[in-house]
Specification:
alpha/beta, Glutaredoxin, five-stranded mixed beta sheet, 26 helices, 24 strands, disordered C terminus, Thioredoxin domain containing 11
């Protein structure tokens, strides 16, 4: 490659040597190119204005040290043991919102923590040159020489203060056995380190253990994994720690572990990785940035998830009552012992059967020697046992392999959704809350006995209220007040939902005031885990609008999730359903067609036009469409024979009328059989629609004729407009010519004025010269008069003759002045 380049360069040089003009042209072109680039760059520097100097982001009275010029002062970190560094951009809205929260935290912890804010957007600052942040704001904490510890949580004062407190005290001192047992009794993962402080003030492994606790805060800003330290050997023996500088990981479901120092290096990163690889967590906190996020999708793709929205105070170190109840349910759900596993393997064909009157339930399971039976056979055989609230055995036939056991019970009166309501039979099929009186033994180990294993996730209700509303929490979703949010949730401010992303369904927990959260969750989980679950998919839809007075019936009925099935499945009328979304541009174009169609069908009460927004209202799977806009027709008395408007046919008013006439079954005369047994297909209803269609066609022809007339008028107007434009162009040309003549006349006037001014100046000079001559003449006369008196007469006469000759023949200078 290098040889080819050298050879090409030699050829170019030889060609230039033979043609000097080419060499000169190349040099001139290069010089011009350099000058053009330099001129362009110099003009660009002159055009770009200098950035204004930055201003203070925090007020001078704030306890936060504001380095608004972007300087990095490492000496500020040595003022306190913990340093809080807030990197911001002055234009960033998130930085402005976090500024108020940081000020609140700084006012409380200013005596213990050094708060520093740095403008990392100023181009001349050192922070901009050293750090390359892609988002703002960013919070870094430094604990002594360890750091930075980046905060990845929400920019709320409570969470930021909680994170700072955890950084200030990353380890919990455990002085006694009771303290150790209480420390390990929490559902969260716990790590205990044993270090003796006898030989030195600080053992070598203690610093590593402290750094590992800070490393854990880097991964989890909530500090779910807590680290404790034991310095007494007798206290360490309570958890079987005998060797000094040992790290113990407490686990509930499996055996606890001790850090293998013979296999791994005892470093802070290695200890932290080992803890997060082997720890057990029954509850996981989620903080998605919105209703749609990669984090939420990643967790939901792992399997069915129970999302619990609870009011949470991050400054409370110990779990509150609601969180303890949820943790207790999760622990019992995941407590899989050997007995429950054997029971699950021996009884794989259990079924839940509902009593005929929907007031009791039975769990029917085959014995160890029985075979799996079909659900209809179990339903018919167990109906007579549902009246007795106990367990007993029965046989489906005379075969010894048909022995089954049935355990029955009644629905809990306080946990039922439909007690004391008029819709008890219909709503029993829509149970989405606690319906089965479950016990702790039934829930224990359920996660290992079913294929519908749940993952428990906890979310802060205050920060994730839009997601709760999207899942079906009652109340106003756009309300920012905590009172409205708490009123929309349950009585204690909680909300729970099971989301199964694989089946694309989710269920909402509906609680009654008399039921506790533990009882409701147990029954909710049991109903979901049953082979034939009583839960029904929750459909999220728009709330019906409230009107103070009864509005007039609209031309097009707007349907929601709650009103969809009753309206569409009404057997007394035909329904033409229009599917649309608010972001569909084609749907908006068809509005005028639907309005015209609704006006034509207004006389005929049997055909109703409705529409539904499928982006805001969830519908049953059998009523969903794969594209918008779409039109479905549900005929009268034959709802199962619904027809979709052809996709290849344009959606116009005549096509829609033909589609309705072809598939309509709402006309009274067309649906009733005639006395001969045949169906009259040409009833008065069809005649009315055909008459309307003919009238519409006549209107269309009239509109076509009017369009032709309008086209002719528009053509004439276009010609007139074109003529006017040509005349305007001619007038503009004449006007331009007149302007040029005016400019010429103005130039001539200015030239004449200049000449006149020059002549006037010369006349003034001539007048001045004449005045000088007159003065000289008067002076000479005075001299002559004096000479006459003193001099001789001959001399006087001679001088008088010379003066007269001089007056007749002036000097050349005077002649030139007079000529001028």
């Amino acid at each position: 490659m290098l040889r080819r380049a050298q050879l090409g360069l030699r050829q170019v040089l030889s060609l230039m040597a033979r043609r000097p003009a080419l060499l000169c042209g190349a040099i001139v072109l290069g010089v011009l190119l350099v000058l053009a680039v330099k001129f362009t760059c110099s003009r660009a520097r002159n055009v770009v204005a200098a950035a204004p100097p930055p201003l203070r982001f925090f007020s001078p009275e704030s306890p936060v040290v504001d380095l608004y010029l972007g300087q990095l002062d490492q000496r500020l970190r040595s003022v306190a043991e913990v340093s809080f560094v807030f990197f911001y951009a002055p234009w960033c809205a998130h930085s402005m919102a976090a500024r108020q929260e940081v000020q609140l935290v700084a006012k409380k912890l200013a005596k213990q923590v050094q708060f520093v804010a740095i403008n990392c957007w100023w181009s001349q600052g050192k922070c901009r040159r050293v750090n390359h942040f892609y988002k703002y704001p960013i919070i870094h904490l430094f604990y002594r020489r360890f750091g930075p510890i980046e905060y990845k949580g929400p920019f709320v004062a409570g969470y930021v203060e909680s994170f700072i407190l955890r950084v200030m005290t990353p380890l919990t001192y455990l002085p006694s056995r009771d303290a150790v047992l209480e420390f390990l009794s929490c559902h969260e993962p716990r790590v205990v380190g044993f270090f003796q402080f006898n030989s030195s003030p600080q053992p070598p492994g203690y610093t590593t253990f402290l750094a590992s606790a800070l490393q854990a805060l880097k991964r989890d800003f909530r500090g779910v994994v807590r680290f404790g330290v034991v310095t007494n050997r007798r206290v360490a023996e309570a958890i079987s720690l005998k060797e000094d500088e040992s790290v113990y990981l407490h686990r509930r479901f499996n055996s606890s572990l001790v850090f293998p120092r013979w296999e791994r290096n005892f470093t802070s990163r290695a200890v932290c990785n080992w803890v997060f690889e082997h720890h057990e967590s029954v509850l996981r906190w989620l903080q998605p940035p919105g209703t749609k996020s990669w984090l939420l999708e990643h967790e939901l793709t792992k399997g069915a998830a129970l999302l619990l929205f609870l009011p949470h105070d991050p400054l409370v170190s110990e779990p509150d009552g609601l969180l303890r109840q949820v943790a207790d349910v999760a622990l019992r759900y995941h407590s899989c012992d050997a007995q429950s596993q054997r029971l699950t393997s021996s009884v794989p064909c259990c079924h839940s059967v509902l009593a005929p009157d929907s007031t009791a339930w039975c769990d029917v399971c085959p014995t160890s020697s029985a075979r799996c039976s079909a659900r209809p056979a179990l339903q018919s055989a167990s109906e007579r046992f549902c009246l007795h609230l106990h367990c007993r055995s029965f046989a489906l036939s005379y075969s010894p392999l048909s022995q089954h056991s049935a355990c029955c019970g009644k629905f809990h009166p306080q946990l039922s959704n439909n007690s004391k309501t008029k819709e008890a039979p219909s709503r029993m099929q829509n149970l989405t809350s606690s319906t089965v009186t479950s016990s702790s033994d039934a829930l224990k180990g359920l996660g290992c006995q079913t294929n519908k294993t749940l993952r428990f996730y906890v979310l802060d209700m205050e920060l994730n209220w839009p997601l709760a509303v999207r899942l079906g929490a009652p109340g106003k979703g756009n309300s920012s007040s905590w009172r409205h949010r708490q009123a929309g949730a349950q009585g204690d401010g909680s909300f729970a939902a099971i989301v199964n992303l694989k089946d694309e369904v989710h269920y909402v927990l509906q609680r009654t005031p008399a039921a506790t959260l533990t009882e409701s969750l147990e029954a909710f989980i049991m109903n979901f885990s049953a082979p034939y679950s009583l839960l029904r998919r929750h459909l999220v839809g728009e709330e019906p609008r409230e009107h103070q007075h009864e509005p007039p019936p609209p031309l097009i009925t707007e349907l929601t999730t709650s009103s969809f099935l009753p309206f569409v499945m009404d057997v007394e009328k035909d329904v033409l359903l229009f599917y649309y979304t608010q972001w569909c541009g084609f749907c908006s174009v068809l509005n005028h067609v639907l309005i015209q169609l609704a006006r034509l069908l207004q006389r005929h009460s049997g055909v109703t036009l409705a529409r539904v927004n499928v982006a805001r209202n969830d519908l049953p799977w059998e009523f969903m469409v794969d594209r918008v806009p779409s039109i479905l027709f549900f005929p009268r008395y034959r709802k199962e024979l619904s027809v979709k408007f052809p996709d290849d046919l344009p959606i116009t008013l005549p096509n829609l009328l033909r589609f309705i006439l072809k598939h309509s079954g709402s006309l009274p005369d067309t649906d009733k059989p005639s006395p001969t047994g045949a169906t009259d297909a040409s009833g008065p209803g069809s005649a009315v629609l055909r008459a309307e269609l003919e009238a519409l066609q006549r209107e269309v022809r009239t509109l076509h004729h009017a369009r032709e007339l309008l086209s002719q008028q528009l053509a004439q107007l276009w010609r007139d407009n074109r003529k006017l434009r040509l005349d305007a162009r001619g007038m503009e040309a004449q006007n331009a010519e007149l302007r040029r003549e005016q400019r010429d006349l103005e130039e001539r006037r200015r030239e004449k004025s200049r000449q006149l001014a020059e002549a006037l100046r010369r006349l003034r000079e001539l007048a001045d010269a004449s005045q000088n001559l007159l003065n000289q003449n008067a002076l000479l006369r005075m001299v002559l008069r004096a000479l006459k008196e003193t001099a001789e007469p001959e001399v006087v006469e001679e001088m008088q003759g010379e003066a007269e000759a001089g007056a007749e023949h002036p000097a050349p200078f005077e002649l030139s002045m007079m000529a001028g």
